[in-house]
Amino acid sequence: MYTQPATTLTPALIIYLIDASDSMNDPCEGGTKIEMVNKALRASIKDMVRRSMRDGVVQRRYKIALFAYSTQVIDVLGGLRDLPDLIKMGSPELSAGGVTDTAAGFAEVEKLLTDRLPEAQHSPAPLICHLTDGVFTTADPSPVIRRIQKMQVNDGPALVENIYVADNMLRRPVMNWQEWPGVQRENELNDDYARFLWSLSSPLPETYRQNINNYGYHLQPGAQLFFPGANSDLVRLAFVITSATQIK
After folding, report:
1. For burial by CB atoms within 10 Å, which of 74, 107, 142, 225 has the most?
2. Which residues, 6 or more positions from 51, have their beta carbon under 8 angstroms from its beta carbon?
3. Residue 55 burial (C-beta neighbours within 10 Å; 0-12, 13-18, 19+)
4. What is the pLDDT of residues 142-171, one digit of tens each?
């Protein structure tokens, strides 16, 4: 599984689901959390452009959707966008405010996948990149997340990646994040919500692991698609995962 390359005929479907609740306005590294996310999104799109360039032309190897959720869910891009179309639109800028309705956000992802999967059966498995900085304040999102993880194409089930922007969730401090092996077991986390999100994260596919380690990281076999967003470099790493499909 997870070996289908992203091509112009079989583009990868990437869905970003971003917590845009009021706490994302909290300070972070000289700015705010939501500003850090905006920077990581721009960098991720640049990675997709770099991997999709051929003879000076950006190929349609990725289809991208972006949902921001708080009190309501906003479809930031107005549906799925081909990469060249997204470049013409310009990089999105998210703002934050409201409560954390995680279940509603994933419900919109489920609707999009239900509509689009029939035409994406020969594409790479969809990847949903979810970032949050706090516990949901409405319904439990785990039922809808589990349903999404059962949706699949020929390449395999949909992948759910969780990024949790919080401090001190790892039992062992990390001195060098480039040498970090990833989270392989629940008992490596000392935060209840981190363990909750880890349990709802898909395994890191081997092809993705190899591609991401080409950036100088050392994620190990058995790691989950779960990342502590302890700093901008880690959020950047987590977002790079979204462009780490095989390319042909």
Report:
1. 225
2. 61, 243, 247
3. exposed
4. 999 999 999 999 999 999 999 999 888 898
The angle, 0 to 180 degrees and rounded to 10, between the axes of the packed helices 33-52 and 232-240 is: 40
Q: What is the pTM of this model?
A: 0.95
Contact present, 36 and 232 (Cβ < 8 Å): yes
Cβ atoms of residues 25 and 19 within 8 Å: no
- CA-CA distance, 227 to 237, in Å (whole number)? 9
Sign for the CA dihedral angle at 181, 183, 188, 193 comes to positive
- In angstroms, the CA 246 to CA 248 distance is 7
Neighbouring C-beta atoms of residue 194, cutoff 10 Å: 21
In the numeric block, which tokens belong to residue 233? Answer: 């470099």
Task: Measure the N-to-C terminal CA separation of the chain; round to a whole number of Å.
Answer: 16
The residue assigned the tokens 């779960």 is: 226
> At which residue do the structure tokens 């997709």 appear?
48
